[in-house]
């Protein structure tokens, strides 16, 4: 199924199953971003209006439905994970000095690094204050473990970047801990809200982990092959930031020794001009680095879908299958 058709089918299913809940999540986000400090209010409104895929709240709500739960608590926890995710994005953009986020100037480009770090901290604090009010030790532990995993991966990624060496194993460790652990936590929390068996809870947790790996590999492939206007961020952003993602790692393994040495020398520079970034991007495509990454993403998505066999057929299960298909076939 073409990506645009798959996206439309998925949107329709999500709207029918959890559309009202997602609208309630947006309302909850706006309420939680309200603050007596003008700068928090201003930045919060800007961040909230940027929207985004809302993948993590969507997965939590669908997992909860699959596990037999729904209602205001699922909505509140979906708000928690989106606020926490937004905090990580704000901090990531500061670390990476990213100029764009979701097609608009990033918070750090708009208000500066100092304000962005502080507002990101505020969103972290809001998230965990909501978790304390929820008062569920298993949910709190799930998100706390994921947050520790994410921050550890950020530091490890920075360490690899400074050393100038990132293997495929390093890359998989980073995205598993940084992206996939959080997506897995969202699915696990959804399961914890219902009453599935222990095996089903474990299956949803693994589903989220495999889906998260597939999502990040696909996202990294888009950095070399997508349309910038549709993607909402600058193409080649990972190269500018000195990140070695799977398409680049695969290309360096396949390129001639001379080409690989030249590219490694370029990547060691503090900054790269646009023409050099474009030359590297073309080499990644020519040496099938993008195709290699997409094959790996599809394999992970297939593994994710297999975990859903622990549940009987339902609209919710089929929608999660569509989510897994979409994250690897999307073009933005």
Structure description:
This protein is mostly helical and 332 residues long. It has a single domain, classed as Farnesyl Diphosphate Synthase, CATH 1.10.600. Helix content is 79%, strand content 1%. The chain has 16 helices and two strands. The chain has helices at 3-33, 38-49, 55-66, 72-96, 107-111, 113-134, 137-163, 168-193, 198-225, 228-231, 237-240, 246-254, 257-267, 274-286, 289-307, 315-329; strands at 100-101, 104-105. A two-stranded antiparallel ribbon has the order 1-2. Helix 1 packs across helix 4. The two termini are 16 Å apart. The mean pLDDT is 92.
Order of helices and strands: HHHHEEHHHHHHHHHHHH
CATH-level-4 superfamily name: Farnesyl Diphosphate Synthase
Percent of residues in beta strands? under 5%
- Describe the main β-sheet briefly: 2 strands, antiparallel
Content-based structural category: mainly alpha
Report the top-level CATH class.
Answer: Mainly Alpha
The total beta strand count reads: 2
Brief summary of the model shown:
The chain has 332 residues and is an all-alpha fold. 79% of the residues lie in helices and 1% in strands.
List descriptors:
332 residues; mainly alpha; Farnesyl Diphosphate Synthase; 16 helices; globular
